[in-house]
Amino acid sequence: ALRHPRRRPYRRRRRGCDDHRVNIAFTEHLGGCSDRAAPFLLVFRRKGLSGLSMSDEVIFSYALNGPKQGQPLHGDAIAEELQSDNLAWVHLDRAHMDTRDWFTDNMAYLDDSVVDALLAEETRPRASSVGDGMMVILRGVNTNEGAALEDMVSIWIWVDSRRIVSLRKSKVRAADEIAEMIGAGTGPTTAGAFLAAMTERLDGRIELAIGEIDDATDALEERLVGHPDPDLRHPITDIRRRTIQLCRHISPQREAVSAIITALHDWIDDQSRRRLSHAHDRLSRKRRVIALVDV
């Protein structure tokens, strides 16, 4: 069970120099030979100083309200804004080798059990209160190039009145859209509005998947009317598989949204609860629609 977060002293992450310049300097010093530079660069990669290593653990970060509202945050400004009285959001790559260290260096006041939950392999949607915050896992259909819509992507979220931390493995377009809205000055400015916006966008992509299943079902029905065809066995099996996958996703997602709606947190305002209730109702209707698919 998750424990109430305990406060720890804020520790600023220190980096001795600019990552990209370090790599260039070492390479140029060794005559531009990558083979000779490799041992040195390996050391800096392990210390998180190499701009030429894998992408940074921070995907993006924004201030959602306060004097910096709508502005992207970088470097030490991320930890400072997350620690302030204003609302800030950081979106992390949970597959990055330095993500856990990022929590240690920048959010040491967050309880270890919360960090463990954010980095756990569990992907089933759920939401639970921990002190003044909530641990939330949501799923959405996969709209990344080359992926099937019903292949789910997950987003792990810690949210309280002053900070939002989200993590993903695969790209979650709903998060990217919210970031674009924040940058344009039309994004959420409260933690409750953020959860509502995220739920609505994930919900919208579920509609896309259901629409595709409906279209495929209609096409099969037209082919089957008066013309039984054994070759249609594989398309029928595929539709059943996609239907089962979506059903497995929607039920726990609906339960997670219900837990957010009923959570006793002041930072979830009435308008956000109404938006979440509408999202919950849509999920319930979609669950019934998918259950009717029988070919």
Give a written overview of the molecule.
It is a single chain. A 6-stranded mixed sheet has the order 1-2-6-5-4-3, with helices on both faces. It is α+β, with helices and mostly antiparallel strands. The chain contains 9 helices and 6 strands; from the N terminus they run ααβαβααββββαααα. The chain is elongated and about 70 Å long. Strand 5 (152-159) and strand 6 form a beta hairpin. Helix 7 runs antiparallel to helix 8 (233-262) and helix 8 packs antiparallel against helix 9. The longest helix has 34 residues, at 191-224. The chain has helices at residues 19-29, 34-46, 76-83, 99-106, 112-119, 173-183, 191-224, 233-262, 270-291, and strands at 58-63, 88-93, 126-130, 133-141, 152-159, 163-168.
The arrangement of helices and strands along the chain is HHEHEHHEEEEHHHH
Global mean pLDDT: 77
pLDDT < 50 stretches: 7-55
Number of helices: 9
Please tally the β strands and state the result: 6
The helix content, as a percent range, equals: 40-55%
| Strand-residue proportion | 5-15%
- What's the main sheet like? 6 strands, mixed
Question: Which strand order do you get reading across the main beta sheet?
Answer: 1-2-6-5-4-3
Structural class: alpha+beta
Q: End-to-end span in angstroms?
A: 43 Å
Rg computed from alpha carbons, rounded to a whole number of angstroms:
23 Å
3D shape: elongated
